[in-house]
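Notes, p. 3: input format for complexes.
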Amino acid sequence: MLTQPRIDIAETDLHELERSLEAAGRPRFHARQIFQWIHRRGVTDFAAMTDIGRQLREQLNDGFMVTTPQVVRQERSTDGTTKFLLRLADGKLIESVFIPDTPAMTFCLSTQVGCAMKCAFCLTGRMGIERNLTAGEIVGQVRVLTRELRMLDTRFNIVLMGMGEPLHNYEQTMKALRILADEHGMAISPRRMTLSTVGVLPALERLATEPLMPNLAISLHSTTEDQRDRLVPVNRKYGLKELLDACRRFPLKRRNRITFEYVLLEGINDTPEDARRLVKLLNGIKAKVNLLPLNEAAGIPFTRPSDDRVNRFAQILADHHLTVSVRKSRGRDIRAACGQLITESSRTKAPGQQLAALMRV
Ligand code: SAH
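Output follows (361 residues plus S-adenosyl-L-homocysteine):
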């Protein structure tokens, strides 16, 4: 008899699991039990799933498995932020970050190994893209963090702001969000999820039609086409104007708003004129602005503006009735802050990657 590869339940949603069980000649109602064990209780060992008959538990091992990322290292910042270095089944490394009290507990997840977007101020972009994460690897980060932090019974938010561009890995990202939201699993409300994107337009248009709708954050970072072309290169394909038009059309639930992230780079995009242009651009959009004073890193050719400059920028937005927040940089001492996630690849590195690898502490 040919041996079939085992089905990885980490990658299946509940319906797929029901179908696979049926195909294996098992009653489908067990799917819900297994799904609950894995996603609600973090148990991936079939032998420990005690409400399933012993015989079936043993048989499950033949046809099924559950893959979970391995923790390689945990680093805890003085502010409580904890960065997890995780190894995937093929040896690739990713990072996930736990950020306490912001004011909620937040898990910052990766969606790709590396990133193809090459934003000028982001270290992850230096790695280039190695591959997309699977839905199971995205969900697996949550399973690992809840286990390691003993947070199975604690509420938390999810932000897709780790390594990678979620809309560049649309299918797997959305599948992961559906698994995370499933009422039989972790049952995380989409209101607690935020998808952050540079604005890959076709994918953004598709997101607008999804039944499961996370909060949306747009990495804007610039107020002119020319400058955004340079800072966020995907702008050369999907320009600022089209992006903002898509945001205007984006369906928002009552009282919900789109967050616009704006990294502040001294002398580049942090002048009062920039602030006033930003106000104009966001006119007519239900928006709030999250200012991200640059997290500096060796090899990133920009400077973080002084607090005075940041406050002046924020004040102009506030004077024009925009809701504005300034992101407190978390976990800088362990390089867990925005745009600082980077892992060494196992293959030969390009010069930019070698540079980044050298900068690891
Ligand atoms: N690819 C997604 C998620 C990336 S990370 C996106 O671009 O939205 C989340 C945010 O951190 C983005 O707004 C990103 O532009 C920002 N960021 C990247 N590098 C940064 C740095 N060095 N300092 C501050 N913010 C940074």
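The first helix runs from residue 14 to 23.
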